[in-house]
Amino acid sequence: AGDDAPRAVFPSIVGRPRHHGIMIGMGQK
């Protein structure tokens, strides 16, 4: 289930590069 969460956020960051930084931190965790 943990892999499903980041996958759904990926498309979200595409439209918002500002969240890209947050995504990187989440993916590393």
From TrEMBL:
<dbReference type="InterPro" id="IPR043129">
    <property type="entry name" value="ATPase_NBD"/>
</dbReference>
<protein>
    <submittedName>
        <fullName>Actin</fullName>
    </submittedName>
</protein>
